[in-house]
Design the sequence.
């Protein structure tokens, strides 16, 4: 649902001179299939072994009992991610300005709560206004 | 189209009703609630990078095996980075 929501704002994001990228621990054969299936117009990048998620300090380890639950319903994280330690990124959406500074950060341990795409657009609009004032 | 959070809320309600197509057992739902509570408890989300921090740079492969460099993206303008745990 996060990806569909991002797709919904992608053309406006591009109009504002910005870009969306999605980072996932999933291996490329899965990102390729997902990209095709959802027909999204932004890149889905493989954050192999969660190296970047770790630098953003978003990692957590899936508790044993949840591992068993997911495995029992057919999810095989170790296969999708080449990730035997069952680590995952917390759901997060960041806006980074041209200088590389984080201007918006929405991080939630509860993956059923996500920031609204319209909030992200508002941040980008504000950045654009500010850039124009400086120029 | 309803906003993202109300669609997520609807999905959660449907999932937790135990009805098809998800047929979630009460036990599974309780397990997931426990995990969410445990994740929130240590304030994990508060440790993540926040507004004002410098974003780490990255060079990663996209779905077409083309390497994408965050520095190249930022030269063109702001970047929205979404961390997604997977399609499952």
Sequence:
């Amino acid at each position: 649902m996060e990806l569909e929501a991002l797709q919904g704002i992608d053309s406006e994001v591009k109009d504002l001179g910005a870009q969306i990228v999605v980072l996932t621990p999933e291996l490329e054969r899965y990102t390729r299939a997902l990209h095709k299936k959802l027909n999204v117009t932004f890149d889905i990048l493989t954050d192999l072994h969660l190296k970047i998620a770790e630098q953003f300090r978003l990692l957590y380890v899936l508790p044993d009992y949840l591992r068993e639950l997911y495995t029992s319903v057919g999810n095989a994280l170790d296969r999708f991610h080449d990730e035997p330690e069952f680590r995952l990124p917390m759901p997060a959406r960041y806006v980074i300005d041209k200088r590389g500074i984080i201007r918006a950060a929405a991080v939630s341990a509860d993956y059923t709560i996500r920031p609204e795409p319209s909030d992200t657009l508002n941040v980008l609009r504000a950045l654009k206004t500010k850039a124009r004032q400086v120029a | 189209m309803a906003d993202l959070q109300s669609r997520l809320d609807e999905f959660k309600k449907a999932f937790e009703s135990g009805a098809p197509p998800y047929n979630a057992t009460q036990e599974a739902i309780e397990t997931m609630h426990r995990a969410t509570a445990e994740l929130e408890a240590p304030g994990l989300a508060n440790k993540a990078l926040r507004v004002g921090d410098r974003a780490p740079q990255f060079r990663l492969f996209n779905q077409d095996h083309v390497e994408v460099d965050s520095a190249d993206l930022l030269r063109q303008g702001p970047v929205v980075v979404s961390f997604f745990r997977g399609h499952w």
